[in-house]
Design a protein that fits this description.
Layout lengths: L1 H20 L9 E9 L7 E4 L8 E5 L3 E4 L2 E3 L2 E8 L2 E5 L19 E4 L3 E2 L6 E3 L8 E4 L10 E10 L2 E8 L5 E6 L17
Antiparallel strand pairs: 1-6, 1-9, 2-3, 4-5, 6-7, 7-8, 10-11, 12-13, 13-14
Amino acid sequence: MAMRLLAMTLGLGFVMAQAAMAAPIDTAGASQCATRGYSIDPDPGGTSLHSAPRADAPVIGRLAPRTRLGPDMHEGVEFEIVGSKDGWLLIRDGQPATDFTLDPANAADGRGWVSGRLVGTALSRPPFRAAPRRDAPVLAEMQGPQWGPDSALVSAVHACQGKYVEVTATPHGGKPIRGWSWAPCSNQLTTCDPSGTAE
């Protein structure tokens, strides 16, 4: 009887795990984006992909952990950012962790939601705007000897709209600023190339 109960419990656990894995991606109310980012998640197990933009949503996959390149130097998995909602980003095409199988329903593009606090991006344009529009007021110019397009540390990606991303960025020796930047890139070891796409 005890063995049968144990088998039933294990079977129920497996079914529940399978049900969680089969959770469809919730995109209701999400913005649409076409930009890129990379994982800054320090978790050695990698970054969890959720089925919806919230921490208690089922985990449907996991990105590979960052690669340590040297003291205080890491390279995170790069991916496309295709949507945002409530501080969460809908991503796809990130390298999955080798010990985690993606939900077959989402394996084609590896979509999933990640917290914007775990995502970095590299700014590639001088204007740092108050809204995701070309005519929005400029909060700061990312240029000059102290701050060029790649000289600001992005600590969080809050939202995105089209090719714009809303981030908190801190220039070297400056204070954090929250604003919108056009067409960032996911380069982590080299500078972005701003040519080819006008704001």
